[in-house]
Amino acid sequence: MPFATDLDVGGSMTPHNLVVERRLSHMVDAYADRAAAQELAAADPIVYRAYEAAVPHETDHLVYRTTIVHPGRVGDEFYMTKGHHHHRDSAEFYYGMAGTGVLLMQTRDGEVRHEELPVGRAVYVPPGWAHRTINTGDTDFVFLAVFFGDAGHDYASIEETGFAVRVKEGAMGAVYEQAVTR
Ligand code: PAN
Ligand code: ZN
Fold first, then answer.
1. What is the pLDDT of residues 59-68, one digit of tens each?
2. Is the whole-model pTM more than 0.90?
3. Nearest ligand for residue 82 CA
4. Which atom from ligand 1 is nearest to the alpha carbon of 86?
């Protein structure tokens, strides 16, 4: 049956299912500065949450989620999502709702692109591009993502290769650095 959900700029969705609540201890290895990550993980802050509408994970359906990435840094690297490929290479639609952040995308061949995702901007993620979001501001970064119900989430393959670019705080704002390892 058709249904409606209400989204607000704080990222809440009514009604919703909470699908992801990622604390720092869940992704210590994602950050360049492991020692800083381990130290901060002792207090185990929530890095981000995602809420999902009650859409079946089946062909022809469009699943949608809001995500709230909190502001923060591990060393000088901004808080970010784990990032993933989809099991079935398929496109995704991102829409900025609040705060300041970036969508980082990478193909399996290692090609990398980033797009800023300010309030009101839509970014198209083509099939085959892994994606991670980074909060480059000092308030919650909130966005909407829409993807195919049968796409599935593959975290393992990007965990293995890592993203080739890291987004860090520089003197003049966000800087994009070539990742040294992973
Ligand atoms: C997003 C992400 C969400 C959380 O809805 O799932 O922002 O990031 P991770 O899934 O990488 O932990 C999306 O891209 N869905 O496909
Ligand atoms: Zn996705």
1. 999 999 999 9
2. yes
3. 1
4. 16
